[in-house]
Write a structure and sequence with these properties.
The protein has 217 residues and is an alpha+beta fold. The protein is built from nine helices and four strands, in the order βαβααββαααααα. Helices cover 53% and strands 9% of the residues. It has a four-stranded mixed beta sheet. The protein is globular.
């Protein structure tokens, strides 16, 4: 059955892979599923046709036959459940991998998104300079905790799982801020994710679109 996802017609990051279709593309590549992409403009995302797929008017969405999903956590979980490779067979290990998916989205991503908001959307506010260090401290605190748990391990709990895929996708956003440099084990963790052939294919596909080139293959 054809899988179709949606992505920005033109990503605000110009193709750095920060738009959330990248994590869905990565999961699709890891489990070996081909997919098509429908590109949407910012305007079209708020039109009824897209709102019928995504009530909040965002990307990515996921269509597979009669099934439509939104929210990257749900989409990656669906793929990991239906295809081998992203969730362990052992029930307890599987539950722990799913826990890391939730941790990525509910505990680590929020302060990082807050930092993005503070810098990009609130940078010109009179109180911005005073607030920014507080926001950065909250991010560092989370990274410190995550780094302590990861230790010297390659992945969070055994082999790469959907939990790692979601988690890597989150601090990846911080690369340009320099904050990650203070956490060598997390920088290595993110780099290991980026080095996966499946990630590279996902990244290259979205970068090609944003560079105005058709994807290879
Ligand atoms: N929690 C959602 C967040 C989706 C999201 O924020 N998508 C962004 C692109 S990365 C978007 O569509 N932004 C445009 C907007 O919100 O209008 C998920 O994980 O799928």
């Amino acid at each position: 059955m054809t899988i179709t996802i949606t992505a920005f017609e033109r990503s605000p990051d110009g193709g750095k892979g920060l738009a959330r279709d990248t994590r869905v593309r990565w999961a699709l590549e890891e489990v070996g599923q081909s997919y098509e992409v429908r590109f949407v403009s910012f305007g079209a995302m708020k039109e009824p046709a897209h709102l019928a797929l995504h009530p909040f008017g965002q990307i990515p969405t996921y269509e597979e036959g009669a099934l439509t999903l939104f929210e990257t956590g749900s989409i990656v979980f669906h793929l990991a459940e239906r295809h081998a490779g992203l969730l362990p067979d052992d029930a307890n290990a599987r539950a722990r991998a799913i826990t890391w998916m939730f941790a990525a989205l509910n505990t680590v991503e929020p302060p990082i998104l807050d930092l993005v908001t503070a810098k990009i959307l609130e940078g010109d506010k009179p109180w911005s300079k005073e607030r920014l260090p507080l926001v950065e401290d909250r991010v560092r605190n989370r990274l410190h905790q995550l780094s302590a748990r990861l230790g010297d391990a390659a992945w969070l709990d055994g082999g790469l799982s959907a939990g790692d895929l979601m988690m890597v996708s989150v601090p990846l956003r911080l690369k340009s801020s320099g904050i990650l440099n203070g956490f060598p084990s997390l920088s290595g963790y993110v780099a290991r994710g980026e080095a996966r052939p499946a990630y590279k294919r996902a990244f290259d596909a979205q970068a090609a679109i944003n560079a105005g080139k058709p994807p290879a293959g």
